[in-house]
């Protein structure tokens, strides 16, 4: 299997999300995958989502457009990674 630049970029985004989640939640996360649900599995709330987005903006040197962000983008780590990849 060949690793493409897209795959590498996606992996970097997922890694940044996991790091930001650890920062926001104040704990190490070892079992997070792209299928991990942000609210159901990690118990995020609206305040922690704000912290997550701010941490991602800093880590990835980007701005999240709140107008373009929908609830579906925050369902899983993978859906958030896809939103960020499209926003860059």
UniProtKB/TrEMBL annotation:
It comes from the Bacteria. Gene3D superfamilies: ACP-like. SUPFAM superfamilies: ACP-like (SSF47336). Residues 8-88 form the Carrier domain. Transmembrane segments: none annotated. Signal peptide: none annotated. This is Acyl carrier protein. The lineage of its organism: Bacteria, Bacillati, Actinomycetota, Actinomycetes, Micromonosporales.
């Amino acid at each position: 299997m060949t690793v493409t630049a897209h795959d590498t970029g996606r992996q970097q985004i997922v890694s940044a999300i996991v790091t930001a989640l650890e920062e926001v939640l104040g704990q190490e996360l070892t079992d997070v995958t792209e299928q991990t649900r942000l609210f159901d599995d990690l118990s995020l709330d609206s305040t922690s989502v704000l912290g997550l987005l701010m941490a991602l903006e800093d880590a990835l040197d980007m701005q999240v457009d709140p107008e373009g962000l929908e609830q579906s983008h925050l369902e899983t780590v993978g859906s958030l990674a896809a939103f960020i990849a499209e926003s860059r």
